[in-house]
Amino acid sequence: MMSINRKFFFDRVRTHLYKNGLDQDAVDGHSAILDRWEKDIPKDDDRWLAYMLATAYHETGGRMQPVEENLNYSAKRLLEVFPGRFKDAAEAARYAGKPEKIANRVYADRLGNGDEASGEGWRYRGRGLVQITGKTNYEKFGIAESPDDALQTDGALTMLFDGMIEGRYTGKSLGDFFDGPREEWVEARRIVNGYDRADDIARYAKHYYSAISYTTG
């Protein structure tokens, strides 16, 4: 049986992505992703694994544990991050520092959510190793009635793997960008979120790819 050489993997990851140290939570998070890969799809393209690791690294700020979206914005940041959702600085100021109120405003009437009063913006805020947002996306994974499942390791791993391999987020899948000679590290960001931070995530993914080596035993 071929398994990923964990010592080599973590040595490379520490060198290239965690120069200030790799804490136990991050080790555990990486290990959980590697374990799921080896258990379910060890014969698939290693570039898929590298890009999933890079996506989780980006989406969790390197923690590699399921996280919840931080919506504690100032008025200034609300106008920068959610242009069009607030008519002016005075209106943004009434929402600033109130995460639940912010979520219900900025995610209202989109992504399958109801209006601001429905509370669905907050109920279906971003969670997971990949930040799924909106009722429609939670329904895709069968957790609309229990959205906090996205914060549990098993649920978060399923959303990372199935979402990116099957193309559940945007209709684009890992196989669309990594298949035989086809290798599109920057374009692959379209699997989750357009081109947001695409160059950075491509760089992380290449570091992860260089860390994947196998040993027999």
TrEMBL record:
Q: Give the taxonomic lineage as stored in the record.
A: Bacteria, Pseudomonadati, Pseudomonadota, Alphaproteobacteria, Hyphomicrobiales
**Cross-referenced Gene3D superfamilies, in alphabetical order?**
1.10.530.10
Q: Name the source's superkingdom.
A: Bacteria
Source species of the chain: Mycoplana rhizolycopersici
Q: Which InterPro entries match?
A: Lysozyme-like_dom_sf
Q: What is this protein called?
A: Chitinase
